[in-house]
């Protein structure tokens, strides 16, 4: 059993990541820490509770984290995720309220519990704050898996917020820089693999989910419906990061030194891989360069469709 903490900005695909994590017997979700990203943390923290309670989980704690990035102005993505952040699908509001103190929860839990995997699927603001407060965390976190970056390792490895920058890194590049320079050596699930067409839900998949006997699958279909109508497919960025904590053999990875760019209209949030063989730089990240898309999709659909 892998103990995990999910740090996220629900968000349509974050919601599906929660569903996959909860329907995976290999994982024990210790808690969710919310951050501003797709939507403001006032909404992303409540959205995590909305998904948990729709699935019948009343005991997993959700903590409200950073409302703004370390330095930059907050940029959100309601145009993608809907005004409410969950596709404006009308999921019921939760009974519970988010708890305060996401960063304190991260520091306390990662200090007291051994072998915790941190799966980050939003901007890295909370994690950077935790590392600034307690640098020893780099020795306490068993594994950091992050959905973020575009590393140019596949034909799909280009940006989605700018031509070169992925949204999570773009929103808080200073936080990402702290994480990449911390020595944590994260496993990076970037757009290089998450936008692989073979790892993407089709409209047909969504229609099948909508008529599934599983309420979780039907709820997932509701959340992604407008996105699928609009774009014709649904990329599963965040569920893929959760999948990496369950089945690492779905991925081929390589170790690189990654630079995070913090400035420039088009380059802010760019994650650059050092490829010059004569430049000797210690690798600071393990980056996914291939995913078995069909096997990932099969696992995702199977597990969210479990009763
Ligand atoms: O670039 C995709 C990432 O940005 C996903 O985590 C999505 O939820 C948004 O946060
Ligand atoms: Ca996200």
TrEMBL record:
Task: From the UniProt annotation, give the residues forming the signal peptide.
Answer: none
Biological processes per GO annotation: purine nucleoside catabolic process
Q: Name one Pfam family in it.
A: IU_nuc_hydro
**From which domain of life does this come?**
Archaea
Q: Which GO terms describe its molecular function?
A: purine nucleosidase activity
Keywords for the protein's UniProt record, in alphabetical order = Glycosidase, Hydrolase
Record bears the keyword Hydrolase: yes
- GO cellular component labels: cytosol
Q: What is this protein called?
A: Nucleoside hydrolase
This protein's species is Caldiarchaeum subterraneum
